[in-house]
């Protein structure tokens, strides 16, 4: 990667530019799922320790974003959607982004280890490594399954939150991980079907570019079918319950119907109604994770009063 000195740019970076390096929209989902993983765990955590843990998860996610933008600066400059990011637009030098990403990574991992435990810190370190190196430097440019495998990076936060509280890994934290992991492909592929992207021009082998839209529709259906039992199964663990199960059944029936509707369509139908179905399914996917993890929080709150989960049966 070539470096660019700050003096080469006609702009002077401000705090907003540096904050944009951290991908705050992605960070918000990471913080929410990590917080849920911490709060639904069976071991209580001191509020201050919990705050520090969530701060470290957020900072680690931001560090991953900065490292991703540093590495992807060349392709970001070739795509309309990303050309305005701080590095390709010249507002932040690549070396600055690399330095910020490395510094924040070290800060988040070390602080989490000192404040909680080494397992949680290791999981955070592995998450940063997976997103910055495995996904950004390798998978993204190498395979159309980049979203599938790379989705693991966004799936670790609830597992980290659980490890902060319990010091371990359990079936509950694995299923929370799997829920996000299996949701990621149909979520992004639904978007890819109706957004005119320039990934092909940038040399990124997204599924819609390499295998076409019909194959992408089939992939959405297959991954949604695999997602449903994971989401439903979580309802029968110690952190699930009737409230979660009811919401999971409803959301998964809604999402699965949308996947079937997409699978039955062709390009002519999509162009005819301006991708009405694909847009609807993508919007459903935006609510999907928040509904499931929000329901887990409701179950945890009910358990405080002795009425949550399946203990009443």
From TrEMBL:
GO CC terms of this entry: plasma membrane
Gene3D superfamilies in UniProt: UbiA prenyltransferase
UniProt keyword terms in alphabetical order: Cell membrane, Heme biosynthesis, Membrane, Transferase, Transmembrane, Transmembrane helix
Pfam families cross-referenced by the UniProt entry: UbiA
Transmembrane stretches, start-end: 26-43, 49-71, 92-112, 118-138, 220-237, 243-263, 284-305
Superkingdom of origin organism: Bacteria
Membrane topology: Multi-pass membrane protein
Top EC class, one word: transferase
InterPro entries: Protohaem_IX_farnesylTrfase (IPR006369), UbiA_prenyltransferase (IPR000537), UbiA_prenylTrfase_CS (IPR030470), UbiA_sf (IPR044878)
Catalytic activity reported: heme b + (2E,6E)-farnesyl diphosphate + H2O = Fe(II)-heme o + diphosphate
Subcellular location: Cell membrane
Subunit structure of this chain's protein: Interacts with CtaA.
Homology family: Belongs to the UbiA prenyltransferase family. Protoheme IX farnesyltransferase subfamily.
Primary role: Converts heme B (protoheme IX) to heme O by substitution of the vinyl group on carbon 2 of heme B porphyrin ring with a hydroxyethyl farnesyl side group.
Protein name: Protoheme IX farnesyltransferase
Gene: cyoE
